[in-house]
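Exercise 7.
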Amino acid sequence: MPSDPLAECLKAYAAGLMPPSDMTVSAWADKHRLLPTTSAEPGPWRTERTPYLREIMDRLSPQDPCEVVVIMKGAQLGLTSVAENWMGHAIHLDPGPALLVQPTWSTARDYARDRINPLCSGTPALRELVGDQTSRRGGTTTTRKQFPGGFLVITGANSAAELRSKAIRRLVLDEVDGYPADVDGEGDPVALALKRTATFSNRKVLIFSTPTVRGASRIEAEFVGTPEQQQLGFSPTDQRKYFVPCPRCEAMQTLEWEHVVWSELGREPHDAAYVCPHCEGVIEQHEKDWMLQRGEWRPTTESNNPKVTGYVISGLYRPHGWRSWGDIAADWVKATRTKDTALQRVLVNTDLAETWDLADGHSLDPSSLAWRVEDYGKTCPAGVCLVTAGVDVQGDRLEVEIVGWGVDEESWSLDYRVIAGDPGGQEVWQLLDALLLERRPHPNVPEGVSVMATCVDAGFMTQRVCEFTRERRQRRVWATKGVPNTAHSPHPIWNNRPGRPMNGKFDVYAVGVDTAKELLNARLQVEEAGPGYCHFSTPHNDDVYFAQLTAERLRTRYRNGRAVHFWWKPNNRRNEALDCRVYATAALKSLLAMGMRLSPIEPEAPHEPARTRVPARGFDFRTRRLR
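Solution. The predicted structure, written as tokens, is:
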């Protein structure tokens, strides 16, 4: 029997007059949320697994007076699921217009496909409410979900059109430290998105991110305020921290990195434990769940805005079974031993939920490196495990540095050449090819060792460089182009996925030059031979070389009130030696990405045939790894 249209209208009208359900977001998730099979722990959602998320979710419930929730977080703590649970609760019990912003349009599309679609299709309470995108029923697409009483749009922070269009009652700003400083010339994307909530008296906003660089981090400014605000005693949030009890003395405390120990207990880093600062009791990793269940959020300062609540939580709080204290400690030891600033930065940002401090204006005195000069010439010292090269292309010459690498990335400058001539011709490239094929004496390899990987700068004379490298791919000679860091996103030194310029004819690999310079700057300050130390030799490492190697320094400028760090070179200063070392480092990283290891070369037994350092198994261009 057909339904009565008038009755349906009256039913819908009555439903619209009903107040929102008093069920909290955490209660809704525990009752309705199902995690997909692609999740690390599929099945029904259990807030008790990550109890530190309960209060955060409940602050987003309609009955809570809080308007804005700010979270400065470590990675892989479950905070992304908070946004999903909140959206699911809203679609089911308190519908309205909603916007979820990712750093870019491509990440927004991936997030919609990988997270929001499984949420809607895998949760029975939502399945019938959200239109099926395959049939486009109700206007639902991959990045737009239509449901009775509202809609959810997933977009990127680089899309000004979506950020300034319709009014929004609920707003999620995910990973705001990855947002551009300006979008399409219309200003800060966070400010544009927040304006869309201004007309709703019952608005709710969730802002969260892993922090990046001190002074340039958006989430840091939202959580503790800008440096100027801090000097004036202004705090935009109450800066809540999660306090947990010690299993021994039950003293409440926050988990801090300084209390994670291993050598003091006679252990290896991967067996690290936590030592209570109150009773000095040793807390094991498996006891963390007991602590989390009994923890509570406490404000640590007085907020100037009672409608805004802020939370900070590090990776030290991850539940047992996730990334452990020992995992963090092992990576920390590796990063500290090798002075790997890129890895240190990742650990500080993603595990400790702290901003990374860049030393603005610091530069090395070239004369301070002169005392390092040794007399090994072009012969590889016994500590060299493999050799790489970096090539800088200039208008009238090629400049090349050959670098030997040892355990923990200790390095030896083996040779530095200036090959004069026109890079548009053949002669300089023939001389470069001969140099790369040259075998260098090594005390443990009778036939000597040759260059295993080379990065050639393709920023100038791109086509000529690509023609040279394409013919030598089997020898791992790569065309590369330097990519500076953005304001909020560092580039890795080596990117395994090449770009395809020149109508897709050539592979050109991106090199994170700023990240490499930061790494080199830290290693040049290591004063004792060993991990990360840089050795230099006569005669190719002279005053001119050291002046070029230390030509640049880190500087800061401000854009839209936020710090932007960049490497600055004074006028008329040459920096070819620095560029060559950066590309030689990138060549090393390319080998490590293929599975190579910096293992010592043992002396050959007299009766054994000579070994070659170039793997006979070759190189697989499909997987970009050694076969």
